[in-house]
Amino acid sequence: MSIKILLLEDDHELGSLIKEELEGRGYEMQWARDLQQISTLNRSVDLAILDLFLPDGKGFEVVPDLSCPIIMMSALSDAQNRLRGAELGVVDFIPKPFLIDELVIKLERILNSKIQKSRLWIGGAVELDLNKKTITVDGEVQWLNKRDARLLEILTQRYPSVVSRDEIIDFVYGKEQNPSHRTVDNAVVGIRQMLRDEDNQWIRSVRGQGYQWMKEGE
Amino acid sequence: MISIWLTFVLSLAGWWLYFGIRTLSMVGASVAHTELVRHQRMIFFEGIVLMAFLLGGGIALFYFSYRTYKEKSAKEKFFASFAHDLKTAMFRLQLQIEKLGKSLGEDKVEPVLVQTRKLHLHLENSLDYALGDEKNLYIEKIEIQDFFGDLHHQWPELRFKVKGKGLALADRKALNSIFKNLLHNSFVHGHAKEVALELSVKGRMLNILYKDDGQVFEGNLARLSSNVASSYQGSGFGLFLVRYWLDRLHGELDFTQSEEGRLHVNMQLPTI
């Protein structure tokens, strides 16, 4: 069963872009453009994303009518509005502009979403979470950069197969940047260091072929 | 104008007091009745002038206070509307770029996303500076590790590292501005690939050490954050705001250098 989200956004372009992006990630969306329209929609949803400033009032006005967790979004997230939101029980306040990924992370954190399957690997004191893009070692958290995350993405996706360096280059760097095999090797060395993978228990080098992910997910 | 008014009113009040006391001492003494009547008339007229000036000053004070209040409200309204419209437009642009990235490839749109991020930061900084102390703060308990980690989505090019945990009593927006400006400096000026936070609690303060693996710092530490036109690389505006926000949050800021010469930003914020 998909997760239902109610979106209240008066800007047509923004509303359709957010709706489209979230639908693309598997959420079932309902979109209202003002307070009047939201009263006609089914409000039994799993989460609501409300814009603060609307043509016919403030997004706060519908908060008491909703029983689900609420995220407010606004270009003006000043102290007064954030305080009002906290008093009304708004779970999170996200200032515009934001990246869709940021919004999705917040949604997933609140919903503990099952849409995206768990991508967690644990080995000793090391924990890799590809949803959060983090590696935690003895309580020290490290957020992966984009390229490291993409590299781990392709290796784990193709588990237990071996992934060639050329495939990694295509997936991680794109062709126009002309990275060499050496670039891939250096990136793998960096990731192994982060994973404390001295004896290649996470990533194995296969001579003449490429790299292989060695761990099953949790 | 105010000083002339104040000098005149105080002098008149002083003279009025002196003259009144002198006149009182004449009552009962062998002074001609006409002399007393003349003094009484002087006290009366001087009193009226004093009262008129006090009233005039009061009305002027009220008028100017009201005008300042109206100007402040108009300024706030203007900035709110300006910020709202501009940020909404930027948000549209950013979402369109993200959408475009899906068909063209993320690498192709990445430089444009980086530029919109810079633009947004400059806009935020300018608004913070323009509104200054008029901005209220909403102090809440904030888990620094999570807060900092959430910013990673906006800087996917960087590796983030956080050692330790800590709660700070701070305003979310102020903290956002502090970290964004530091990250911007590391990424744009320092060309860093990795940034790290080390958190530790000492008494009622949370120590936050911010460092990166970027270029060594060759400027003058003492001048950093002291004004908006510090000469080291950028305008210095970002670090100036970092200090401004930390002052408002009752925190502290100090800059040191690592053995290799990299900049270390030591911050302290109140904790529970």
What does this structure look like?
The complex is a heterodimer of chains A (218) and B (272). Chain A has 218 residues and is an alpha/beta fold. Chain A folds into two domains: 4-111, 3-Layer(aba) Sandwich (Rossmann fold); 120-213, Arc Repressor Mutant, subunit A (Orthogonal Bundle). Chain A is built from seven helices and 14 strands. Chain A has helices spanning 12-24, 35-38, 79-88, 100-111, 146-157, 165-173, 181-194; strands spanning 4-8, 28-32, 47-51, 53-54, 57-58, 70-74, 92-95, 120-123, 126-129, 134-137, 140-143, 162-163, 203-206, 210-213. In chain A, a hairpin with a 2-residue loop joins strand 10 (134-137) and strand 11. The radius of gyration of chain A is 22 Å and the shape is elongated. The two termini of chain A are 23 Å apart. Chain B has 272 residues and is of the alpha+beta class. Chain B is built from six helices and seven strands. Chain B has a five-stranded mixed beta sheet with strand order 2-4-5-7-6. Chain B has a two-stranded antiparallel sheet with strand order 1-3. In chain B, helix 2 runs antiparallel to helix 3, helix 3 crosses helix 5 (172-189) and helix 5 packs antiparallel against helix 6. The longest helix of chain B has 72 residues, at 33-104. The chains are: A alpha/beta (218), B alpha+beta (272). At the A-B interface, helix 1, helix 3, helix 4, strand 11 and helix 5 of A face helix 2, helix 3, helix 4, strand 2 and helix 5 of B. Strand 11 (140-143) of chain A pairs antiparallel with strand 2 of chain B.
